[in-house]
What does this fold into?
Amino acid sequence: MPLVCFQPGGIVAEVPEGTLIREAAQLVGILDLELPCGGEGVCGLCKVEVDGQNTPILACQTKVTSDIVVRLPDRQQGALFVGDSHLLIDPGLLPDAGHLTPLYRRLRLNVPPASVEEHYSDWTRLVREMRRSNGALPVTCDLPVLRRLSASVRAANGKITVSVEESVSELRIRDVQSGHTSAHALGLAVDIGTTTVAAQLVDLDDGALLATQTSYNLQLRRGADIISRIDYARDGERLEELRSLVLETINGLIGQLAKSLLIEPQDIGGAFLAGNTTMIHLLLGLPPGYIREAPYVPTVNFVPELRAQEVGLKIDPQALVACAPGVGSYVGGDITAGLLCTDLPTNNQDVFLFMDIGTNGEIVIGNADWMVGCACSAGPAFEGSGIKCGMRAAEGAVERVAIGDDRESVKCSVIGGGKPAGICGSGLISLLGELFRQDVVDRSGRFFESPGSGRIVQYEGRRAFRLAGGEQTRDGKDLLITEADLENLIRTKAAIYAACSLVLENVGLTWDSITRVYIAGGFGRYIRIADAVFIGMLPDLPLDRFRYLGNSSLTGAYIALLSREHRQRMAEIAARITYVDLSSNPGYMDSYIKALFLPHTDLEQFPTVAETLKSRRREIS
Amino acid sequence: MPLVCFQPGGIVAEVPEGTLIREAAQLVGILDLELPCGGEGVCGLCKVEVDGQNTPILACQTKVTSDIVVRLPDRQQGALFVGDSHLLIDPGLLPDAGHLTPLYRRLRLNVPPASVEEHYSDWTRLVREMRRSNGALPVTCDLPVLRRLSASVRAANGKITVSVEESVSELRIRDVQSGHTSAHALGLAVDIGTTTVAAQLVDLDDGALLATQTSYNLQLRRGADIISRIDYARDGERLEELRSLVLETINGLIGQLAKSLLIEPQDIGGAFLAGNTTMIHLLLGLPPGYIREAPYVPTVNFVPELRAQEVGLKIDPQALVACAPGVGSYVGGDITAGLLCTDLPTNNQDVFLFMDIGTNGEIVIGNADWMVGCACSAGPAFEGSGIKCGMRAAEGAVERVAIGDDRESVKCSVIGGGKPAGICGSGLISLLGELFRQDVVDRSGRFFESPGSGRIVQYEGRRAFRLAGGEQTRDGKDLLITEADLENLIRTKAAIYAACSLVLENVGLTWDSITRVYIAGGFGRYIRIADAVFIGMLPDLPLDRFRYLGNSSLTGAYIALLSREHRQRMAEIAARITYVDLSSNPGYMDSYIKALFLPHTDLEQFPTVAETLKSRRREIS
It folds into this structure.
């Protein structure tokens, strides 16, 4: 099958010959190619450039017949920033840009003058104008706004611009200026992961995503996973240390975002945060100890709205900081935010499975009537941490691997193109699948004694796969994937699969009942579902039942930042999910051990993988 | 008719022979004589002492047959503090002490432990307990509360005490402590008058009034009335000066209140303020200029709730500060607060008249369907300012005068007993009535050439009445009431009567339609209605239609501090009143000039006064 490489960004799609370019784009989550004519080839708005051709062609009319590189026009380039996961979800789930109700907004109003007949106060006339389009919440303000109000209202014949925050209980005017100012209101969406933190700067006037930055959570210095962080934070000083570390991480991202857009961090007027329960506790300086002591309750799931100043975020000190509501100790706001990126079923026949796979794996299964949520400890492998050459899905990360039948030739797709610097989650999944498919590793993930390939090398007493030699990498060192890395990866995928199996069993369902599987996580920009099924991480279901959402926690935070309706919906979702504790379930360990093989001890659960393996063996023999 | 003098305080009631002592007490507004047996003489709880008798007697059984001095037991003594106006209103209008919903409260809760089955977070379990008795408002808190929550909940088996403020939009937990603390929450009620400021310290757990303090508004240095203050505040520096002066006044009262009860001002957790529109603007530093420029609109009538810190009140910096909502530029929150002290009519036949007479006179007339409000400039005479020997209604103030038929013998009732230090509003009204009744002054308030009394003396080229000689006063100087004082007083009463007449005319009613007249103001603790009718300040209606409310602005602030329902009712009242501007009414000056006589140019409007005068003349001739 030919490969289509979309630039900039180097996202690769492998598609059957004859696929339209626009279909290939959709397959890899580029959803905003403009198709106002419905793909009839009439409007000409989906024009793209293809390397080696002189004139742009129409993505809706041109079929892929061989490997090509497609260059998207400027507008679509924005779609390819790392972290731009909101392009992976159904655009219908995003708030309507024409009717945003963000956490913080700038309203340009025309306050009518008072008259002898209608001698309403300046404040009353202002509030009436606000009410026209901003709902019925009580309106309040700080004193400096009142002090400037009479002059501001009169300076430009009633034209004023007010900066307004919307909490769950009130609209608060934080600033008033005369005239209609052009500066847009800015907001911040943050996903605080155990391993990776991602932040987006958002234009709150039109919902435009202005920039995304991600970085490792500096708390990694004090433990790779949630449990080790909780243990570390057992006294006040250490809790404060962890709080400072994650704040340093987020404030660093804010600084980068501000710098890239030439704004001051203080111009950011509101923030929406999503993170797992422990991350939110550590960020807020709440002692997390009770999260891991029976009966396992956190201080808070529905965090009250706070101010940037008290949280320590270096944006406008008075900015409202809202957190996505969590469900329980190990199913946090990152999950409820992520569920905003899904079409929840409206009937009982449709059962969905939502999996968010980061350092922890969190799973929600449900239908229109019920939702059950649980968690399993996955480990940070998919986010590049704990893997020798692992890295986040950033420029230079290998995100796709193809190994030739000779087990020697290797093709790597690198984010941003050029030489690789490391490998990210989707790259690891792809690599493990290829190693297994090409019989480089056995079903337990160990390299065969005699793989017949010069790529197998010794590393610290064990074997490793040399994905790229030093001459091909950015730092001049071999890009090695060790057997320990593969074990790490297999433990992770086993934990996830075992958790899903057990929840299904508990609610009396089988895999077949699942009509939709949503996959979220920080693997990279694009996880090939077939790869994940092949290694037994995802169930062997028809591929059209899967949707890859990318970092849905971040996308959910972005959506919630922009829309009151979605903030309310998220709270309803959090309240509806029943939390179950797998760790106390005696069947879990059994289920986990069975999943430690590739794809699984029980090959019957993976019929298409078994079929591929069988035909492969036939070819070889 | 015999006189009953209640001590301590020296409140005098003139009652028909045979009146029960308890009826006399009710007449002058002492409403809390305990009568659990309904006045049957059974319970013995209404025992009082009568000077000259050896044993206490029952107030409900003893008739007044001659002048007596009644000494109230300790509990009733509290009722006689200056400013204790809430004892003058129908007790049924006060919030139920068992179900208070104050602006700030202390809740002693038992938070149940979490269990494996019910693993709600600490916050959720706390909020559920709060909800049982505190309504459905969203609950929020500051971050330090969350940080201490998990430890506080566990330290005393779920027993915690939370300090909670209730704004119009949310309940905010400001503090959490483990165990059930005994310290009560404290609040502040303030009436900010143009001349006088009064503050009360209130126990928010049981509604008890702990102490009251009043003082002149230090802004008096910069103008006696609202208009001169607005003019003075025309630039930012002077506005800031006026703001500082009223803050200094209020903070001084807070300091005295705190000292008298041995508490720290920072222990006061919430404040409710009532004041006229200009006073509130000056306190908050809002430029007041537009109040007196057409079309006469203030910056704000419904002031958003603020924090003590931003306002500058020296109580808990985070304390919520709420202001009674105003109606317009010259009908402020003092009036809506005052209306909380009245039984507003529930049908259209009952028309009420509410008059608040301070430095400004404000009037509201209405029935169940409509309310009209307006203002007239009265001047500070009733509050003792602008009067040579005037003083606030405090210890040492003459509050009642009787002049003998010889025009020489004078009896003064002095607040707190002893020698007089000056004269307050009710004393002035009483004095003017007596001077007029005894033909010491003519109908324009001028002393007759030959009054035949040694009490008429010369003072600065004009005549004056020597109420007390230097040997009888505290400072050893004559207590003089000058002709200029009397003119001042007559202008004031004329402005009030003229305003009422005009509003009645505008709504097509006559005086007879008024079924209830509420009189509020800073005259003193007790204004004798008959005196005020005699000088033409109040209409000549049957005396049983009048109710004297005292400082109803302060009482209303006290009520609102304690009760959500009353805060809401006050806002509804403010929204319902239609504001009319008398100053632009061409009939006002005409009406005013007619009222500059004693009791009025048109004696037909005062039939009982005319009758008294006629019979008096008959006696003399």
Notes: The longest strand of chain A covers residues 159-166. Chain A touches chain B through 50 residues (CB under 8 Å). Chain A is about 30% helix and 25% strand.
